[in-house]
Every structure is written in structure tokens, then in C-alpha cells.
Write a structure and sequence with these properties.
Elements (H helix, E strand, L loop, with lengths): L4 E10 L2 E7 L2 E2 L4 E5 L6 H8 L7 E6 L2 E2 L5 H7 E4 L11 H6 L14 H13 L15 H14 L4 E5 L7 H18 L2 E5 L3 H7 L2 E5 L4 E4 L1 H6 L2 H5 L5 E4 L4 E4 L5 E6 L2 H13 L2 E3 L6 E5 L2 E4 L2 E3 L2 H10 L1
Parallel strand pairs: 4-9, 4-10, 7-8, 8-9, 14-15, 14-16
Antiparallel strand pairs: 1-2, 1-3, 1-5, 5-6, 10-11, 12-13, 16-17, 17-18
Helix pairs in contact: 4-5
């Protein structure tokens, strides 16, 4: 399968400041790549370079086999959709008019939208949950609403490659999950290749089939599971007071355990009880003198009963 995007010995950065070099990357239809790394390491610089908005310091970028630098603006827009974090100057445009900008690379020299173009724009708005903003002024939208319209504009281009920079940052948690699911569907069903820079690390691990893991010196490319098993993921995101639990696949607070508690029970109630106890600074130890039992009706702490986790914690604190 031919690559949608490929780079060879790519060096990125600015005059006098090298951000990364020797990047030989490739993207194929169906790829959903999460670009992750600590703040300030150059993720946006990489995306801007791949989009042709920033000239590479060295090396080459090919889009669909053609040198990116040799493509006209119209040809780039037909193959590549980009959503960056900058707030666009939209004037008095409505949501539909802003999303419609994504169709103009596909129209004739007069720029007239055919019925087919209008249907594609409306579908793009609906896909990202922005159909309700179709006739509203973009200036009246919230940051999250405006960002959804910007993604609709990129989808309306029907590109082979989508480059998205922190587009979920203004969305609430359920909509972030839904958006990552949408990316997977677009990649699988339409053959898009997608790169999304994100701080939603746990979502990225669940939803992306590849990670570009960048630590400020080199970029590691691989399946999320491989980069976790290698220890690279935990190493790059190591921080005081926080650790990545490789067994559970999420980050946890590292608090020194001041006391020990024995915990009996299983299932989801027991799992959340364990989290609450560990958050409170308790180590789970079967030999501990304080015993917490989880059952279908509540919690037993020694001879006392609690109907909620909060009440259980209060009892534990007293013992």
C-alpha cells in the first residue's frame, strides 16, 4: 500500500534552533497516529512542517509520492487537511460558511458550490456534532464549538491526510472519547491517514494504532503497546508524584502510604474502593489490622457499616 505521507532524513526547527532531525516517517491509509510528548518538545513544529507551513531545515517530505514543496496550494488543500490551535479570523462567517472553505479547492475557478459540495459540508458538520452551529455566527461560538467547525472544514476537504493539533482540548470528556472514535472510523472506512497531537494520553493509548512518542531529542514510532512494554512511555512521562501503571494502563498519583488497610471484595465497587483508599494514602495489605469488606449493599469496616465510599473513608480515618 502506497504511503500517504513519507519523510526522509527530515530535520525540523527554526534558523539557529534544531528541534529534531533524521526523521524518516511514513503514514498509510487507515493509520491513526497520536503524537505525544512533554510540553515544549516540538510537536506543533513537526505538524506545521509536515503541513508545509514551515520549511524543513533538511530532508524531504512527500505527499502521495509527490514532493510536498512542489505542490501548488490547491493541490495541497485537496490532499491535506490541517487544524492548528491558532484562533482563526472569521469575521461574520457562519458555521456553514467557515466549513465550506474546505470545499473550494475542489470547485471550479468561479468557486461555486454544487449540491454535492453542500451535502459534503453538511455531512462534515454533522460528523463532528456541529450541525446546530450551521447558521450561527462563528464569533458567537464557544472555543469548543468553533474548534468543531474547524475540524468540519478539514473534513469537507476530503483529504487523504489529516493533521490535527490539540483539537480535543476544548471538548468535555465524553466528546473527546467520541471524537477519537470518529477518527478511527474515518481512517478505517475512508482510508484517511490521521495524525493528532494530544495530551489525552490514556485516550491515545486506547484509540491510536500508532504513537509518535517524542521526548525532545528523538521520536519513537511504534504501536502503543510496544512503547509501553519497552518502558519508553513511562520514562518520557515520568514526573514527581505521578507514575504510569503499566498493568492498568493509566497514570496514578504516587503518595507515600501512611497506613495499611486490608480490602476484601471484587468487581467494580472493589476497584473504585481501592482507588479511593490509595488516593487517601493507604496501602492495601491483606495482613493490615483495619479490614474493609465490599458487598452488594455497602461497606463493612470492622463492626461498622457504610453506605458510601465517603462514609467508609471517614470510618477508616477514625480507626
Amino acid at each position: 500500500m502506497s504511503a500517504v505521507l513519507s519523510t526522509e532524513e527530515l530535520a525540523i526547527g527554526y534558523p539557529g534552533r534544531l528541534v529534531a532531525d533524521r526523521l524518516s516517517l511514513d503514514l498509510h491509509p487507515g493509520d491513526v497516529v497520536a503524537l505525544v510528548g512533554p510540553n515544549g518538545t516540538g510537536k506543533t513544529t513537526l505538524l506545521r512542517t509536515l503541513a508545509g507551513l514551515l520549511a524543513p531545515l533538511a530532508g524531504s517530505i512527500r505527499l502521495g509520492g509527490d514532493p510536498l514543496a512542489g505542490l501548488s496550494a490547491r493541490e495541497k488543500a485537496q490532499r491535506l487537511g490541517v487544524v492548528l490551535t491558532e484562533r482563526p479570523q472569521t469575521g461574520y462567517l457562519t458555521g456553514f460558511e467557515l466549513a465550506a472553505a474546505g470545499r473550494y479547492p475542489h470547485t471550479g475557478w468561479q468557486g461555486r458550490l454544487a449540491d454535492e459540495d453542500i451535502a459534503i459540508i453538511d455531512e462534515a458538520l454533522a460528523l463532528v456534532g456541529a450541525a446546530a452551529f450551521r447558521d450561527r455566527a462563528v464569533a458567537s461560538l464557544s472555543d469548543g464549538e468553533r474548534q468543531r467547525v474547524m475540524v468540519a472544514r478539514a473534513l469537507a476537504q476530503q483529504p487523504r491526510l489529516l493533521l490535527l493539533d490539540e483539537v480535543t482540548s476544548f471538548l468535555d470528556v465524553p466528546r473527546r472519547v467520541a471524537f477519537f472514535a470518529l477518527l478511527g472510523e474515518l481512517a478505517e472506512q475512508r482510508g484517511y491517514a490521521i495524525v493528532i497531537s494530544t495530551h489525552e494520553l490514556e485516550l491515545a493509548l486506547r484509540c491510536a494504532n500508532r504513537l509518535w512518542l517524542y521526548d525532545g531529542t528523538k521520536l519513537l514510532d511504534g504501536a502503543p503497546e510496544d512503547l509501553i512494554l519497552s518502558g519508553d512511555f513511562a520514562r518520557i512521562f515520568a514526573a514527581d508524584g505521578v507514575r504510569f501503571d503499566e498493568d492498568a494502563g493509566h497514570f496514578e498519583l504516587r503518595r507515600p502510604a501512611s497506613r495499611r488497610v486490608a480490602l476484601e471484595g471484587d468487581g467494580v465497587r472493589a476497584a473504585w474502593t481501592r482507588r479511593a483508599l490509595e488516593r487517601g494514602g493507604y496501602a492495601i495489605d491483606a495482613a493490615a489490622p483495619v479490614h474493609v469488606a465490599v458487598d452488594g449493599d455497602g461497606w463493612s469496616v470492622g463492626a461498622e457499616r457504610a453506605a458510601t465510599i465517603a462514609a467508609m473513608l471517614e470510618i477508616v480515618e477514625r480507626l
